Amino acid sequence: DTEVTQTPKHLVMGMTNKKSLKCEQHMGHRAMYWYKQKAKKPPELMFVYSYEKLSINESVPSRFSPECPNSSLLNLHLHALQPEDSALYLCASSQDYREQGYEQYFGPGTRLTVT
Amino acid sequence: GEDVEQSLFLSVREGDSSVINCTYTDSSSTYLYWYKQEPGAGLQLLTYIFSNMDMKQDQRLTVLLNKKDKHLSLRIADTQTGDSAIYFCAEFPNTGNQFYFGTGTSLTVIP
């Protein structure tokens, strides 16, 4: 199983809502990632979890709150978002972190629209 | 961050070869990668090359690496309409802590 799953596929939320994005992998990978991708642009790294601990936070606003409940699951909690946060949010995993050659496997993404 | 550059658009006829180019910045990158992204989907790893190699072939895909010029290319032989997508190169520098993706090349295959 080389699949990373993400739910929901699409999400529309108002600026006062609280919602969560979910990501799951069963490949035994110890590193998991959240990326934000705007249309026709490369993915931008937001967070990296390594062995269930937050390793990188790329100066992401606090309205985005990641959580790694266990080695297979990664959540992204959203609160008080802005319209400019509308984007495709991609989750990825890799066997390890800071080890080159461990390719990242990406999920299909959650298309988020903030109204 | 790193500036990994790619040309934005490429258009080819079905059956022709496509060549997508990438210029990366960090010579310490041990592996260099090519990802494909179809509309509305996540990124799919196509292939990668180890930095001590000049070339790697994988079915219709050929990766060429010129380490001196920090230039990477992806050749797709016998391009099909299903190859239409955005292609990203990526590097993971030894001195860094994350992948750096190129700007992406949108490949359109004309039937």
- Biggest chain contact: A-B, 23 and 25 residues
Report the structural category of chain A: mainly beta
Count of extended strands of chain A: 11
Q: Please count the helical segments of chain A.
A: 0
Main beta sheet of chain A: strand number and arrangement? 7 strands, mixed
Helix content of chain A: under 10%
Estimate what percentage of residues of chain B fall within beta strands: over 45%
The secondary-structure element order of chain B is EEEEEEEEEEE
Model description:
- The complex is a heterodimer of chains A (115) and B (111).
- The mean pLDDT of chain A is 92.
- Chain A contains no helices and eleven strands.
- Chain A has 115 residues and is an all-beta fold.
- Chain A has strands spanning 4-7, 10-13, 18-25, 31-37, 44-50, 53-57, 64-70, 73-79, 87-94, 105-106, 110-114.
- Chain B is mostly beta strands.
- Helix content of chain B is 0%, strand content 53%.
- Chain B is built from no helices and eleven strands.
- In chain B, 33% of the residues are buried.
- The interface between A and B is medium-sized, with 23 and 25 residues.
What descriptive keywords fit this protein?
heterodimer; A: 115 residues; mainly beta; seven-stranded mixed beta sheet; four-stranded antiparallel beta sheet; 11 strands; B: 111 residues; six-stranded mixed beta sheet; five-stranded antiparallel beta sheet; 0% helix; 53% strand
